[in-house]
Amino acid sequence: MASARSRLNRLEELLWLLLTYLETLLVISEDMSRATCQEQACLFLPIKKRLKMAEKRWKLGLSGGSE
Hints:
mainly alpha
């Protein structure tokens, strides 16, 4: 069974891969309107925030000794 540290490292790796993928979905071109850019950012930022909050909760759970 994987240790808590290796599971955390894997979770972090998966989170960053997901964030990178989501960022590629937000293709911004010069001819894109400002409203469209803002709309895409509004879709992406809450997801990024939730992933970071989940990562913090995971780390707090590990530091609390729950394995």
